[in-house]
Amino acid sequence: MVEFGGWDMPVEYSGIIDEHMAVRTKVGLFDVSHMGQIELAGADALAAVQWISSNDASRLALGQIQYSALTTPEGTFVDDILVYRMADQHFMLVVNAGNIMKDHQWIVARTAERGGDVSVVNASSRYGLIAIQGPEAERVLQTLTAIELADLKYYWFAHGEVAGVRVMVSRTGYTGEDGFEIFVPPAQAERVWNALLEAGEAAGIKPCGLGARDTLRLEASMRLCGSDMDEHTSVVEAGLGWIVGWKKDGFLGADRLRAQKAGSLERRLVGFEMRDRAIARHGHAVMDGETPIGIVTSGTQTPFLKKSIGLAMVPVALSAPGAPLTIDIRGRRVQAEVVPEPFYKRSKPA
Amino acid sequence: MYPTDLKYTKEHEWVRVTGDEATVGITDFAQKQLGDVVFVELPDVGRVLTQGEVFGTIESVKAVSELFSPLAGTVLAVNGDLGTHPESVNSQPHDAWMIKIKVTDSAELANLLDAAKYDALTQ
After folding, report:
1. Using CA atoms, how far apart are residues A210 and A232, in angstroms rounded to an integer?
2. CB A70 within 8 Å of CB A100
3. pLDDT confidence of A267, banded at 50, 70, 90?
4. Taking a contact as any Cβ pair under 8 Å apart, which residues of chain A between 158 and 177 contact chain B?
5. Which of residues 217-256 of A touch B (CB under 8 A)?
6. A-contacting residues of B 47-86, CB under 8 Å?
7. What is the pLDDT of residue A162?
8. Per-residue pLDDT for A350 more than 90?
9. pLDDT recorded at residue A277
């Protein structure tokens, strides 16, 4: 067990590679109850969400979800988040475990500055969160719920029961695979977890820890806030221009992000593959001769693709696929190459 | 219980001494701590090592660790099979050797642990 954002969590159960492969080929189960939930409600809830986050929440229908960023006035990350439209004037933000208090204080302060009718509640203690991920996820979960999962589209959610427990089910995940995240009352989380393990036994379900969660998300090119980007990284630099609502009115950091999009961008997060036999990891420098010019933000040997890959922040001149990168790994210089993202994309969405 | 024909270091290497030749790997305890091994970096043949000197690195999916030479000596051979099958360190840790060295000072053996002491260390 390791300490993670104040939670004791297993790095692995049966082994990172075993768990990773289960999710890519069958189904895996994750306890991600450490994730936080912050709710905004009131007549001005939409205006508040629009002001504090980069994506355009006005495009969300009831029951729909979007990936977004909580931004600073410089267009950098307070956190990366999922925005759920619970009702016309009610939104839920799913935030990273280590940032719950920071995000909550940030949102309370920014919405208070603007005024209006909106209340901000840290609801994290009300939710346990269980993720079931993999090509067999729908089939396994369907045996425990009356929600028509085939009708639940990617990045939508529904209310119902799983194993007799009132839950909210969203078709989301952090693995690059089809799957669901189940918001469950904490007191019933163990019951739902055990029911899913039992229902998935024939399909080969495996409980999965933080280790596989990290290799799966990286193989799918999904960013990890705090590792790949932070309050010094803009949304555009992180390669996430697609989560900026360019057409919406002002929001925190909009001016700088627009300028970067228009051409002032100096560095960008890219995906790379190692050409030499080595694994680059968070913090290793990208070198030009003796000068550090960039930094590796994530890296691993991926169990499914069986490649040594990673993400690095590099000068824009080195950000196109094919660009060679020299990385310093504990004093040894190794070669890598910028490649198109994502590294892994599942063959067919369910 | 660990094999009694091997000696051990506190850094979780094992060593099998035959005459003046020593074969070195990492223990079952070490591979369990590391998890899935994906990469082993070994020295060139001919390199001269002192007791306790770093002779290579081993990486699992989740971590990187240094490898320490249990004895002083000259590297006679490295196990090239680990390049293509690093996972054998997990499946057969006490067979998946890393280097063989020609031992220069057999008195250093006294600094190593026997199986019972190593077993106690890992409890």
Report:
1. 25
2. no
3. very high
4. none
5. none
6. 57, 59-62, 64, 83
7. 98
8. no
9. 83
Q: pLDDT tens-digit profile of A120-163?
A: 999 999 999 999 999 999 999 999 999 999 999 999 999 999 99
Least Cα separation, residue B44 to chain A (angstroms):
15
For chain A, domain boundaries: 2-33+127-219, 36-125, 266-339
Contact: B61, A278; criterion CB under 8 Å: no
Element (H, E) at A39: strand A36-41
Check CB contact of A310 with chain B, cutoff 8 Å: no
Which residue's structure tokens are 């310093």? Answer: A328
Q: Which ipTM was obtained for this model?
A: 0.71
Q: What are phi and psi of A67, to 5 degrees?
A: -80, 140
Chain A CB contacts of B83 below 8 Å = 277
Averaged pLDDT of chain A: 96
Residue with token string 């971590």 = B63
Closest CA to A222 of A239, A208, A198: A239
Interchain proximity A11–B62, CB inside 8 Å: yes
- What is the C-alpha R_g of chain A? 20
Stretches in chain B below the pLDDT threshold 70: none
User: Which CATH architecture describes the domain A36-125?
Assistant: 2-Layer Sandwich (3.30)
* CB count in 10 Å sphere of residue B117: 13
Q: Do A15 and B57 touch (CB under 8 A)?
A: no
Q: Answer yes or no: do A15 and B59 touch at CB < 8 A.
A: no
What integer pLDDT is reported at residue A330 of this predicted model? 86
Contacts of B61 in chain A (CB under 8 A): 16-17, 211, 215, 300-301, 303
> Distance, in angstroms, between B64 CA and closest chain A CA?
9
Which residue in B42, B61, B65, B85 has the most chain A C-beta atoms within 10 A of its own C-beta, making it the best mutation to test that interface? B61
- The CATH homologous superfamily for domain A2-33+127-219 is Probable tRNA modification gtpase trme; domain 1 (3.30.1360.120)
The domain made up of A266-339 has a fold known as Elongation Factor Tu (Ef-tu); domain 3 (2.40.30)
What digits encode the pLDDT tens for the residues A195-220? 999 999 999 999 999 999 999 999 99
Nearest CA among B111, B118, B121, B103 for reference residue B24: B103
**Is B7-107 CATH 3.40.50.300?**
no
What is the rounded CA–CA span in Å between residue A305 and residue A86?
37
